[in-house]
Hints:
Layout: E1 5-11, H1 17-22, H2 30-35, E2 39-43, H3 52-64, E3 71-75, E4 78-79, E5 90-91, E6 96-97, H4 98-106, E7 111-115, H5 117-121, E8 134-135, E9 139-140, E10 144-145, E11 161-163, H6 170-183, H7 195-198, H8 209-213, H9 228-231, H10 242-245, E12 280-281, E13 284-285, H11 294-306, H12 310-316
Parallel strand pairs: 1-2, 1-3, 3-7, 7-11
Antiparallel strand pairs: 4-8, 5-6, 9-10, 12-13
Amino acid sequence: MSEAFSVLWLQAGSCGGCTMSALAADDVGLVAALDRFGIRLLWHPALSAQSGPDALDILADAAAGRIAVDALCVEGAVMTGPNGTGRFQMMAGTGQSTAAWIAAIAAQARHVVAVGSCAAYGGIPMAGANPTDATGLQFLGFDGAGLLPRSFVARGGLPVINVAGCAPHPGWLVETLAELALSGTCALDGLGRPRAFADHLAHHGCSRNEFYEFKASAARASDRGCLMENLGCKATQAPGDCNLRRWNGYGSCTDAGYACINCTTPGFQDCGAPFLETAKIAGIPVGLPVDMPKAWFVALAALSKSATPQRVRTNAHADHVIVPPIHRPPRSP
Length: 333
């Protein structure tokens, strides 16, 4: 029997939400879900029994290459300040920064996985003035270099694998690690995100799509209408299959009445407007569906609104179905 695929997990500048999301993987939890694919957690700061000197021994062995690390998973943005020293986040008991430990182990790991948008692109910790000099592993937003150079390639032949999201769907993480364990590779898009989820949009499968088609918009979060026009929803721009696979088997942000904030994309934290308000110029949303020219959108929106059935218009401003669909017998050919 081949040796288990080993995962070492480090937490940098993080709220811990990515771990919380991962704990809900499948119907059995993260550890058991990974075990199905022959993946074992070498160490995780919140889930492993080893702490103190025992944990530091594991990290030292990983950094020196004495133990194999098939995937280094990093959760949270890397705090590189002040002045590049990384001393804003030190690894307790070592005298070294967390950034230094990440860089050392990344140099030995077969694959490096950024878990969440903070680790991928800098995320929430780099919002605004970014006083801690927080950065992603390989990206700083869209264009800048993170802790590791943009030319970095791990020993397995791939750059940093960005399982983006705030927090990412647990299935994205488990399936990415499973693909690495079973095939040794993973198809990535231009921002390092696994294409298995990044080739979709959060808009796909949204339960509000009928309202979107007719541009029948919600005025409040409790309304059933489309959240794009007034309440800041960016699902038509956001990479992710959130509404196809659902969260915890049955829910999503938009199902719950919360607008998609495009959290899988660099810079989502500095969107220029409150998350739950749609930024507009001359009454037209600034953020339009991907690949759609503004003139086409304006023309389509005007046509759609003029054709909106009264049923859809009424239900869009209610928290439950007010007017049900009319059921007619099928027509004979």
